[in-house]
Amino acid sequence: MATKLLKSMAFPVIFLSMFLNFCTPSISLHHHHSLPKSHHQNVRQNRNSLYSFRTTFIETGKTTPVGELDWRSDAAENVIEFRLRTAVIRSLSTSSREWIALGMAKNESLIDTDLFVIWLHGDRIEAKDFWTDSSGRLHKDKSQDYRLLDYDVTSDDRLELVFSRPIDTCDAKDYQIQNGTDHLLLLRGYYKEAQSDDESLIIHNLTTFAMKRVSLMKTLRAVPDLPSDVQIDEVLVDTITVPAESTTYWCKVYQFSRMYSKHHIIRYEAVVSPGNEDLVHHMEVYNCNVQDGQHLPNYSGSCRAKDKPSSLESCKHVIGAWAMGAEPFIYPEEVGVAIGGSGSTAYVMIEIHYNNPTHRKGVVDNSGIRFYHTPTLRPNDAGILEVGVVYSPNQSVPPNSREFVLTGYCTSQCTKSGLPTGGIRAFASQLHTHLTGVAVWTEHIRRGVELKELNRDNHYSAHFQEIRLLPTDVQILPGDMLITHCRYDTRSRNNVTLGGFGIEDEMCVNYIHYYPQSNLEVCKSTVSKKTLDAFLRHEGLGGAPPEEGLDQVRWDGRTKKLWQDVIQMAPIDTECLQSSGRPFLGDWKNQSPVSKWLPRPKRRRYCHSMDWRHLLSRTFLVK
């Protein structure tokens, strides 16, 4: 099964060659097992209280976990510690033995991967640092940056390994752990000992391949307890049959119950019908801005249908957003999303994007979002601000491009118009593209000076779009500019990828969670109509609609570079929208983006010869 999986994922090799020399210390099974049992129990108990996060590895197509990984990090000390629990490694015969590896990678492949490999050698456990090259071939790292701190075989025949490494090893062959998405690999297999003295082993017959996307440097904040008066509402579609089409946006109106006074939403989470996990791409719930006593129709149907009631255009204020890979979102204890009461209504509308590329028929769905809300109000009302690129074919990605970047501006003119005098404080961010997005980041500019970025993910995956708490709240003032960039890899596509709503189209968005709530809902841009018309005329396609013109462009290297320059420097049309969906007063067409500002100094990497292993022993190894 694992071999078939590797072939299906186009891995270049199945047999990985390991060149192991046994000059580094190993741990004897007999020696370690001679320690008193109580010693092991105390170590485990102490360490249980140290770990901040946990994930479980499950192979594709299976349901039984093959391993659990706990971890905690200390950025100030530049160190991260892991505890891996999995089935014990064994000697399968006199010449065949098992190995296990934890890998870190930019994506789900075995290309350019950082691996910590553990194997059984005689009565000892060996553990070393390896890396794979662009062909997937394994090499022992000259700089051994992982450290095996401890291990145990538990009473239920589980192997428990504790190991650590610097967050930034300053080693070009190691994976650099950053804020953002990390692809973790859990591999198992067996090897046959060489019959020579060349101190080499050949790893083959991969038996386990499990991949999990996580954020190793996730912000850790205290999780407030749910109050005793918490109420739960599930905003779900009602037993609908998903259309057998590639892309469907389905809308359903719902009314929150028991909403006689203002409430705060303090938590929400996805409810996805079992078996439909691959169909539900993302969901948004909008509060509807209607007058007291006004009733909305109980509509359930396509969001693009011609018979969709016009009164639903009032449903524009986002109160919850979820995308594939996101976990339940819990608001910090000082904020909540206002719903109900004076000046607000209990009417909401859910919009679900279904991705059905194989046109499956007869699929019934009851998915949606579960909200936890309370009448016990918190100090601040939260809002969600959408920044990035307008959903429009005006800004599209050429085919066969490895690193093409789309850019969207939330201009200083728009933040002046929409933000309160004291500004807002961002506390979380959710980055969003479709299938070809590989990196997303948002720059923050104030009076011509670049401030700290407002979220960055250099290894972004459209299958892991979690809402990430920021390390500290970020103040955004009127007049600030937010510039969102998305990098795409379209080497697998021969036609242009248009901006738009379909899963084969592309998006570039950052949903910023903030407080106090303002009337600014959307702050995005796209290449101006005048600029696009001029570009198409230059390519001999004047007068063609954007979709047709961009599809007919001859996308050679020269044209791609010209189009990239247009996106980065040419005039833009902006969307500066209120919660009602109406634009703020102003001239939002054919604006010139600010292209020059004082850049923020790059973070200094402290690469020196300090023996960090001593630091690890002192800081992490609890005995």
Describe the protein:
With 623 residues, the chain is mainly β. It folds into 3 domains: 2-218, Immunoglobulin-like, CATH 2.60.40; 221-373, Jelly Rolls; 382-592, Jelly Rolls. 11% of the residues lie in helices and 40% in strands. It has 8 helices and 37 strands. Strands 1, 2, 6, 7, 8, 9, 12 and 13 form an 8-stranded antiparallel sheet that branches. A hairpin with an 8-residue loop joins strand 6 (96-105) and strand 7 (114-121). 41% of the residues are buried.
Q: Any idea what the CATH architecture of the largest domain is?
A: Sandwich
Name the structural class: mainly beta
CATH topology of the largest domain: Immunoglobulin-like
The rough form would be described as: globular
Please outline the major beta sheet.
Answer: 8 strands, antiparallel
Q: Which strand-content bin applies to the residues?
A: 35-45%
The overall pLDDT, averaged over residues, is: 84
| Alpha carbon gyration radius | 27 Å
Helix content: 10-25%
Number of strands: 37
Level-1 CATH class name of the largest domain:
Mainly Beta
